């Protein structure tokens, strides 16, 4: 194939009709590819493209997340941490550019975009790229110890479900009725959720992080809320940009936390009025990425039975993993 994308297009065309389908959260149904529920277009194509072509570099920082666990927040924090000597806090790019534009999705980099494979190759190191893909779906070369490093964030499933349900309803075309909480709950519990099942996604990165903590930094949204300074310092160390004593005494960590806070980012003009163009077809208002930004809000929506059932699934799935929410 003269163009590497063509090879993947062929594989995609052959694979798609064979995949199991389920009702989606939007107009599109979801398909199950290698055990993971994906949108048949952007997500599946993006993943196949990564599997076939992506060449990781040891300096790459991959932010891996399940949607609605804190992607936007971590994009801002990692970007600000890694680039802190390049930009001042008073005219920082994050004040005028949405976090998603500062830190592109690898999954949507080439497919559905006007960018090319060469553009990705030309990005200077260290590249900051994000992905929603579960670790099991990434090519083995990315799992190699030296190939690239991952920052992963997870969040209490109750808050993930509610955040996702409200987000999806904002994105659903106006002519469709909103998806009910009951329906969203059933889909989520069955694992039928973009890049789901959620628990498998979390466990994949969790187990790998235990085996190789140098390669995968595993974080929790709840810890980031509780101890943002400690987490940002860990991010600095992990990404190879540790904070010096002098920087700490100048309050650089605090500046980063403040810059990336929900309060600050959600009130910026760019995040209130601009849109994020992930691909030709996927365009989302930046403001939808900022809703409440709190721990435990899921409980305000879920019934006692829903909370109980979700907690039961979580304890069963995580029972011997050492991970708790
Ligand atoms: P809520 O819907 O619970 O408010 P993602 O970025 O992965 O799509 O996740 C979105 C969730 O993260 C939303 O949760 C959103 O409000 C929250 N969020 C976005 N930016 C944040 C920030 N700077 N600090 C804390 N939470 C943030």
TrEMBL record:
Signal peptide: none annotated. Keywords: Transferase. Its EC number is 2.8.2.-. InterPro entries: P-loop_NTPase, Sulfotransferase_dom. Residues 58-322 form the Sulfotransferase domain. Pfam families: Sulfotransfer_1. The keyword Transport does not apply. It comes from the Eukaryota. It is an enzyme of class 2 (transferase). Belongs to the sulfotransferase 1 family. This is Sulfotransferase. It comes from Hibiscus sabdariffa (roselle).
């Amino acid at each position: 194939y003269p163009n590497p994308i063509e090879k993947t297009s062929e594989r995609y065309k052959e694979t798609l009709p064979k995949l199991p389908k389920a009702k989606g959260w939007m107009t599109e149904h979801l398909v199950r590819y290698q055990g993971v529920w994906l949108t048949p277009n952007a997500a599946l194509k993006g993943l196949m493209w990564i599997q076939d072509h992506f060449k990781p570099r040891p300096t790459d920082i991959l932010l891996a997340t399940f949607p609605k666990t804190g992607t936007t927040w971590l994009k801002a924090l990692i970007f600000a941490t890694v680039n802190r000597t390049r930009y001042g806090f008073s005219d920082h790019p994050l004040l005028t550019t949405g976090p998603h534009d500062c830190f592109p999705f690898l999954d949507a980099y080439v497919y559905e975009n006007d960018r090319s494979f060469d553009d990705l190759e030309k990005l200077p190191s260290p590249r900051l790229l994000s992905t929603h893909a579960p670790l099991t779906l990434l090519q083995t070369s990315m799992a190699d110890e030296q190939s690239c490093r991952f920052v992963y964030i997870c969040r209490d499933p109750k808050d993930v479900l509610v955040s996702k349900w409200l987000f999806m309803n904002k994105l659903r075309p106006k002519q469709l009725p909103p998806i009910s909480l009951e329906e969203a709950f059933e889909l989520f519990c069955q694992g039928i959720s973009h890049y789901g099942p959620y628990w498998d996604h979390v466990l994949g990165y969790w187990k790998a992080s235990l085996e190789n903590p140098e390669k995968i930094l595993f974080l929790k949204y709840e810890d980031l809320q509780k101890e943002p300074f400690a987490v940002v310092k860990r991010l600095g160390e992990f990404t190879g940009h540790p904070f010096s004593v002098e920087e700490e005494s100048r309050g650089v960590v605090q500046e980063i936390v403040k810059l990336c806070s929900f309060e600050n980012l959600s009130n910026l003009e760019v995040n209130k009025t601009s849109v994020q163009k992930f691909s030709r077809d996927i365009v989302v208002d930046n403001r939808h990425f900022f809703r409440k930004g709190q721990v435990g809000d899921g409980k305000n929506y879920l019934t006692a039975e829903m909370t109980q059932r979700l907690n039961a699934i979580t304890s069963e799935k995580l029972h011997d993993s050492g991970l708790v929410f």
